[in-house]
Amino acid sequence: MAGEASIYGFKERRVDIGELEMSLYQGGNPEQPTLLMLHGYSADKNVWLRFAKHFVDDYHIIIPDMAGHGDTAFVSGGDYSITAQSRRLQGLLDALNIDQVHIIGNSMGGFISADFSLSYPERVLTTGLVDPAGVNSPEPSTMQKLLAEGRNPFLVEKRDQFREFYAMTMAKPPWMPGVVLDAMAEDYQQRRTELAEIFNDFHSTALLEPRLANLRSPALLLWGSEDQLIHVSSVDTWRAAIPTLEITVWEGIGHMPMLEIPAESAARYQQFLTKYSESAQ
Hints:
The protein is α/β, with parallel strands linked by helices. The protein has one domain: 3-Layer(aba) Sandwich (Rossmann fold). The chain is built from eleven helices and eight strands. The protein has helices at residues 2-7, 49-52, 82-95, 108-119, 142-148, 159-169, 178-190, 192-202, 234-241, 257-260, 262-280, and strands spanning 11-16, 21-28, 34-38, 60-64, 101-106, 124-130, 219-224, 246-250. It has an eight-stranded mixed β-sheet, with helices on both faces. Helix 3 crosses helix 4 and helix 6 (159-169) packs across helix 7.
């Protein structure tokens, strides 16, 4: 994936935020407003590349590996709650001398994006939410049903389990060589204990509903109708909590629109950014 990142003009770097060093991709135009893109639980910064490439001319782009993910180290007992991850982002922006960002996140990253926007409103221009975690789902997803049965599909013990889990993450996944999927399966197996700790911390964080009425930044919600990890009925919860929320739901798309339909989802996000950039002038 580093090769793909370089094709789009992204450079990988490490930034010391005091508590730890965060790995990230940095690219685009440093003279322009900053987009901060956050991946979901168990994923890494690479999931945003094919979406992010559409913004390199007009924005400065930061795509970090959140603590415990990708090339940012896991430390047992390190606190992987949403609150802690938001605090680390504050440290990252301080280290990079970036005052304000357009923040967008998928899944756990969406939860972090909303929490960051509520906790540090002076740092946020707009908030993008892509199939985000963080609120109650009126209808249980496939994953929630499995969790209720005592099985976490993210915690993989063998290759076949990974293939089953991977099929849940996207309705229209990009083509991936079998050898790459096998390597991903091995990585998930090796990280099983780490992922379990991160999952427990992530899910110990209070849900967002009581706070969402305080969201000050313009917000966009993107969702795939076939999401098996977080049911699309969650859209109703977000809509009720944020009356001004802009919403787009794509039929036949799963949990990761930025990977499944990168050009289309980027175009929708660009439309949103353009609207609020013009209104701020």
